[in-house]
Write a structure and sequence with these properties.
Protein name: DUF4283 domain-containing protein
CATH superfamily of the largest domain: RRM (RNA recognition motif) domain
Strand content: 25-35%
CATH topology of the largest domain: Alpha-Beta Plaits
Shape: globular
Number of domains: 2
Number of helices: 4
Radius of gyration: 21 Å
InterPro entries: At4g02000-like, DUF4283
Organism: Escallonia herrerae
Pfam family, one: DUF4283
Oligomer: single chain
Largest sheet: 5 strands, antiparallel
CATH class of the largest domain: Alpha Beta
CATH architecture of the largest domain: 2-Layer Sandwich
């Protein structure tokens, strides 16, 4: 089948009915509490759940009452403590056995298959900029070649001989290579 035939067939697909409204279950099941995080380890080999659990418990400082479940090729992290939940989300990215753990909060109005794990926040250091170019506006310009800017930190108060840098927290697409640098127009 050639691509034009496939496009024509796709264009003929329609939804035959109007959207329907479904009631909301006010008593969420145990699988989805307000403190649930969906995750996926980005790797080509299968992982051992008990090993992952040990690694994350240690990395996350043994959060009390944490339950880890598997569902539809995803990991569900169900927290009992709001402080632990926010600590894990705010301190991303996480690595497990040399592989990236993409995580995202799971909101009650979103189906598990709709949780977007194709991006993840990373801290990126930008070195070699002249001090007068380390501005928030320039961080926004740099962000356009890397991902979506979440936060900016500057290290302007350096001693002579130390490299000044700008630290950006950027939401990066996991399927795309991260650029190693850029040319600065002078």
């Amino acid at each position: 089948m050639d691509i034009n035939t496939l496009i024509q067939q796709t264009n003929r697909l329609t939804c035959s009915s109007e959207p329907i409204e479904l009631e909301t279950d006010r008593t969420l099941p145990d699988i989805l509490t307000p403190l649930t995080i969906v995750g996926k380890i980005i790797c080509d080999i299968p992982f051992n759940k008990s090993t992952v659990r040990k690694i994350l418990f240690k990395a996350w400082s043994s959060p009390s009452g944490l339950k880890i479940k598997e569902q539809d090729n995803h990991l569900l992290f169900i927290f009992q403590n709001e402080a632990d939940y926010h600590k894990v989300l705010n301190n991303r990215p996480w690595t497990v056995m040399g592989s990236h753990l993409a995580i995202r909060e799971w909101l009650p109005d979103v189906a598990l298959q709709e949780v977007n794990l194709s991006t993840s926040p990373f801290w990126v250091r930008v070195y070699g900029l002249p001090p007068n170019r380390m501005t928030s506006n320039n961080a926004i310009t740099i962000e356009k070649i890397i991902g979506v800017l979440l936060q900016v930190e500057h290290s302007r108060n350096c001693r002579i001989g130390e490299a000044a840098f700008m630290r950006l927290r950027v939401e990066i697409a996991l399927e795309q290579p991260v650029p190693k640098g850029f040319a600065l127009k002078r």
